[in-house]
Amino acid sequence: MARLYVLLFVVQIVLAVCALISCLSAEEGEIKALPRIAWVLIILFFPLLGSLAWFAAGRERVAGRPAGGAPKGRLLPPRERPRPVAPDDDPEFLRSLGERSRQEDGELFRRWEEDLRRREDEMRRRDGEPPREEDRPEGSTPST
C-alpha cells in the first residue's frame, strides 16, 4: 500500500511541475480565467487539483491547432508565427548574407582584374613591349 502512495505522490509532483512549466511558458493571450500569478499560486498550493484545473480551464485551446504549432497545410498569420531566436536561424537573414556576399565578391574580383591588367600594362610599357591583343580596344591597330 505504501508503494501506491509513493507512486501517487510522484505522479502528483510530475503533474504539478508540468503544469507550472506550461503555465509559465504560455503566451499572455493563451491564459484564461485568472492572471498567470494566480494560476502559479493555485498550482503550488494545491498541486493535484491546481494542475488539473490549469490543464482543464486555465489555458486556451485553439480548435484545429496541434499543441506543437501550426496545423498541417496552413500558414500562421505573421503575428502568430514563431520568430527565429538567433540570426543564424532566420532564413531571410541567411539569404541576404548570401546575396550580399556574392555581390561583394563580384565587385572585389572585378577590381582585382582591373588592377592586374593595369600592372601588366605598366610592366609592358616599362619593358618596351606592346600591349597584349586581348587588352587592346576593338578596332585599334598595334602601334610599332
Describe this structure in words.
The structure is a single chain. With 144 residues, this protein is mainly alpha-helical. Among the domains are: 8-61, no CATH class; 92-131, no CATH class. It has four helices and no strands. The protein has helices spanning 2-25, 36-45, 47-58, 91-127. The longest helix has 37 residues, at 91-127. It is rod-shaped, with a radius of gyration of 35 Å.
Give a short account of the largest sheet: none
Helix tally?
4
Low-confidence stretches: none
Helix content: 55-70%
Q: How much is the radius of gyration in Å?
A: 35 Å
Query: What class, by secondary structure content?
Result: mainly alpha
pLDDT averaged residue by residue: 79
Query: What is the first-to-last residue Cα distance?
Result: 112 Å
Q: Tell me the β content.
A: under 5%
Number of strands: 0
Shape from CA axes? Answer: rod-shaped
Would you list the SSEs in sequence order as H and E? HHHH
Brief summary:
The chain has 144 residues and is mainly α. It contains 4 helices and no strands. Among the domains are: 8-61, no CATH class; 92-131, no CATH class.
